Amino acid sequence: MADFSFDLVVVGGGPAGATTALHLVRHEGIAPRRVLVVDKARFPRDKPCAGAVSAHGVRVLARLGLEIGVPHVAMCGVRVMLGDAVGESTLAMGIVARRIELDSWLLDVARRDGVVVREGDALTGLERIAGGFRLTTARGEVVTTRLVAACDGAGGATRKLLGLREPERKGHLYVLETDVARADVGVRRGLVDFDLSVLADGVEGYYWDFPTVIDGRPAVSRGIYHANMTASREVKASLRRALARRGVDLAKVTPRAFSTRPFVRGSVTWVPGVVLVGEAAGIDRTTGEGIAQAMAMGGLAARHLARALRTGSGTFVAYDHDVRRSTFGRHLLESAWLARRVYAPAFAPARRYLLRSDYARRTALRWYRGESLPLAAKLRMALELGGDAVSGGLSDLRAS
Ligand SMILES: Cc1cc2nc3c(=O)[nH]c(=O)nc-3n(C[C@H](O)[C@H](O)[C@H](O)COP(=O)(O)OP(=O)(O)OC[C@H]3O[C@@H](n4cnc5c(N)ncnc54)[C@H](O)[C@@H]3O)c2cc1C
Asked: Which of 33, 130, 313, 343 is the most exposed place for a label (fewest CB within 10 A)?
């Protein structure tokens, strides 16, 4: 067999890349010096993101023997808002950390474990050779490897170099951070706000306020998510209005725009010799979230990459199967299905139900935390939603 520089090159050192490398080294017995992580950015690098890591992601890190090693705040519950109506539920949801700190810490852990990390150098070329790949980087480095883990997120190079098409339209987000304002009554109590009022502007998504911490001071991550199943030019204007309702002037802050790749039924998770992990494959289309999913997918990818290194196989059919059958994978697919419905005008009864019912919100939070929902919970929600739709329809009739 040819002599390769590395057994595996991980392209991208974000949550997907760092956890893939860590799972390989800590759980799969792969020698760290045989794994290269290459990232085009120099860390600490920022990533436009609200930094909410669901309890599922915290559990994945715990299984790696890690406690979040950067400043963070607990998410203690949720407030769902629509116009003047607010539905509040408390349940430990996970944590919020700033990506500039979180990602740098996680990649450092991998580096300290002995993984080879090359920063500030982008993958620019990928060529198949016998038994593996020859990769080239922007700085002109050439490395050979048996396998590749594409962990380079929504705007990475690997998919393009492999000729993979986008499975669906990408979501759009704007994010910014501010001091805590007088209107931030939920954030002060560690609650995360999802405001659905932006649906009235044609946004397929929500406006958010999450508690965060900057240089030891409480702060707020704010932003808007548009799933973008239907194109809209109103997203920034909608953000401006939502911010104004909270006393924040868009003209005085600097929102950063970024796209998200949704995970859908037709998403590709591998091609021979390459696995796609995290947002390189896709993330949650209803919420626009993907940190915990990227970390969990990193664990599955590592298991299948290690097996491929042992057997010399380059096919990852079983990885694809395991992704789709895992709890997070089923949630990703459910979310792709839900996104088309939950923001649609016809889904107004379900939104009313979510605002009215603590049970519905707590069930949604359990789903967000990465728990499998028992059939009984789904049935109860369906029955209550049916009752709500009937009574909502009757009161609409009475009002007309
Ligand atoms: C505004 C916004 C807010 C969000 N808020 C949340 C949230 O609160 N909670 C949540 O769970 N998710 C959130 N998300 C989604 C979340 O940011 C992503 O799901 C997550 O970053 C995916 O992790 P990843 O490791 O797959 O990719 P990334 O974190 O994007 O990491 C990819 C890495 O690849 C590197 N790279 C790219 N191209 C190359 C190349 N050619 N060569 C080498 N390296 C390359 C990049 O520099 C980067 O470091 C948000 C997204 C946006 C846009």
From this structure: 130
CA–CA separation, 323 and 305 (whole Å): 13
CATH of domain 6-68+98-167+263-334: 3.50.50.60
Round to whole Å and give the CA distance between 186 and 206. Answer: 16
Task: With H, G, I as helix, E, B as strand and everything else as coil, classify residue 87.
Answer: strand
Give the number of other Cβ atoms within 10 Å of residue 100's Cβ: 17
Among 42, 47, 173, 224, the mutation site with the greatest number of ligand 1 atoms within 8 A of its Cβ is 47
Residue 11 near residue 151 (C-beta atoms within 8 A): yes
User: What one-character DSSP code corresponds to residue 164?
Assistant: P
- Pick the atom of ligand 1 nearest to 43's CA: 49
Give the pLDDT confidence of 116-175 residue by residue, as tens digits. Answer: 999 999 999 999 999 999 999 999 999 999 999 999 999 999 999 999 999 999 999 999
CATH class as words, domain 75-95+168-260: alpha beta
Pocket of ligand 1 (CB under 6 A): 11-17, 38-41, 45, 47-52, 122-123, 151-153, 156-157, 173, 175, 223, 258, 260, 278-280, 283, 288-292, 294
Predicted confidence (pLDDT) per residue in 17-68, tens digit:
999 999 999 999 999 999 999 999 999 999 999 999 999 999 999 999 999 9
Which residue out of 23, 38, 39, 225 has the highest number of ligand 1 atoms within 8 Å of its CB and is therefore the one to mutate?
39
- Total residue length of the chain: 400
Rounded Cα gap, residues 219 and 212, in angstroms: 5
Per-domain residue ranges for the chain?
Answer: 6-68+98-167+263-334, 75-95+168-260, 345-399
- For residues 214 and 317, what is the distance between their CA atoms, to the nearest angstrom? 43
Give per-residue pLDDT as tens, 221-248.
999 999 999 999 999 999 999 999 999 9
Amino acid at 202: G
Secondary-structure breakdown of the chain: helix, strand, coil percentages, each rounded to the nearest 5: 40, 30, 30
- Is the full-model pTM beyond 0.90? yes
Given its phi and psi angles, is residue 140 left (phi above 0), alpha (psi -120 to 50 degrees) or beta? Answer: left
